[in-house]
Write a structure and sequence with these properties.
By secondary structure, the chain is α/β, with parallel strands linked by helices. The chain has one domain (8-300): Alpha/Beta hydrolase fold, catalytic domain (Rossmann fold). Helix content is 26%, strand content 20%. The chain contains 9 helices and 13 strands. It has a 9-stranded mixed β-sheet with strand order 3-4-5-7-6-10-11-12-13, with helices on both faces. It has a two-stranded antiparallel sheet with strand order 1-2. β1 (8-13) and β2 form a beta hairpin. α4 (120-130) packs across α6 (187-198).
Length: 304
Amino acid sequence: MGRHSLIFRARALAAALIWTIVSPFMGSVSAGNLVVQEIRPSDADPPITRFNEPNYVVIDDEATAAAQLVVFMPGTGGKPANASQLLGVVAHLGYRVIGLEYNDEPAVVEVCPKSPIASCSGNFRRRRIFGGDVNSVVANTESETIVTRLVKLLQYLDVHDAAGHWGDYLEGGEPNWPRIVVSGLSQGAGMAAYIAKQKPVARVVLFSSPWDFQRDSRRLAPWLIEPGATPPERWYAEYHRREKTAALIAQAYQALQIPPSHIRVFDLDLPSGFKVKGDNPYHSSTIKVAAYAPDWEFLFGRSP
């Protein structure tokens, strides 16, 4: 595999992955059998200037080119590296993993619940994911769509790590969705769900979202109820019983027709010293608390 300058040294400890910074420069390091790389979106696509935190790429050295690819999208204001423990566990399940940086501000739930237009959140997500001529309250260039960012990153990896066959996750210049697992936290989970509604992905893993709704009527957004391209048996999800939007999330999972046996309801207390911004700490704990590792393994399964 192609190597950049060192940035992280990793080791396994008590079933959790602990990351220690050893250099301020971007790069990769093999630790045990994991390889971690950080690649800024602008490295893969120079016109990008916003939302340019590094993408976080993790593979297990034993994973083959036949492994499925997991694309994980963080929540609003989050960084891909914030999910390092989760993504390391997923890589150990045989997947190749990308924590994808994308346009995540403003959030869908900051804009669309107060809109009288029922299609607001669906149009918002379509514009941010796929671009195109969509009547949306959010604007982004084609080069800043989630799909374009993913394609450019895969092309970049294919050039700099030709032996890794990263181009196999592309087909006709687009993501090869049947080989890709989409996942995310909060707004990122909503993006993953919307992609899975439009494209037949290998698997969907949702962390604490979506809960798109209209505030006045309290009705879920129409896109959550519409038929989708990915069958229900490929959907998996979780939420924490004590997060503020738990009831709405549970309702959305039912609308998405996720099998009840595929849903985990987390309920652990916050670990001592756990720090998080905002007044909904259980929301982000679901991807950061190492004790949930067995649940993460259940949700993702092993790469075929």
